[in-house]
């Protein structure tokens, strides 16, 4: 088996940080975080200073994918807003330092909910509060005046859904590894059922339970992570994405084997319909056409993972999660198609 090069040159990074950030020039402790499957994340410790570093994965990469400097820009803008975000410290475009662009942010402490819950999630009332806090943070994000925080040229405020379809159809064709007929059927359904968007907001693009951090002692979101897909667009795309990952008791097994997507099956967590209703109540937006946004989210995830599957087949990633994508991506396509059929038949 080919040995992959290190993702961080520890000595070069130490010298760079000694120049850029005040403090003692001490050896670095570097810990790779395996919680996600996209941009690479590391805990960096220097003495009593703690940071988080984000860099792209190894190639080949699709155009516009894994843009960590875009993440940095949106986080820097949101650091001046009420949205819970970690404070960013620096961005580095010089690929000679660690082999790729990267940025550094403060390390926030709390709970990221994957397969276990914090102590306040031990009862149904606590799990209800966790659900509410997730929606409240999303509503807070969508309420930000994106022009006022310096993101006036971050994305185009109109035509978001049309651009999403064009972009992801193009990415599918660039990353496609095999025939995916169900996914192609979803593509045609989405093109035929495009809704009219309301006013644009900041869109996170990857908003789900395990991309936020909760406070240590109360059900409150203290940080939202993984902003690489952020843009300006239709806020309901974020809600649809959240719903696409949200599970209820009695749902069929997930298309991809991960406990992260099953924790919310426990009693007390809101149902998908309750999440939609709570978002509508707090934001004042209509959620009548959410089937489109949910199908769009599952379709986009399948296409994104097909790009990851291409990297796995090329031998440029050592993430064991990608082994299951051969069957997992067609299963996601079938689930998206079920949402399309549910909508067309007048289901909820």
From TrEMBL:
Pfam families: APH
Transmembrane segments: none
Name the record gives this protein: Aminoglycoside phosphotransferase domain-containing protein
Residues annotated as domain Aminoglycoside phosphotransferase: 30-258
SUPFAM superfamilies given in the database record: Protein kinase-like (PK-like)
Organism annotation: Thermogemmatispora tikiterensis
InterPro entries the UniProt entry points to: ACAD10-like (IPR052898), ACAD10_11_N (IPR041726), Aminoglycoside_PTrfase (IPR002575), Kinase-like_dom_sf (IPR011009)
Lineage top rank: taxon: Bacteria
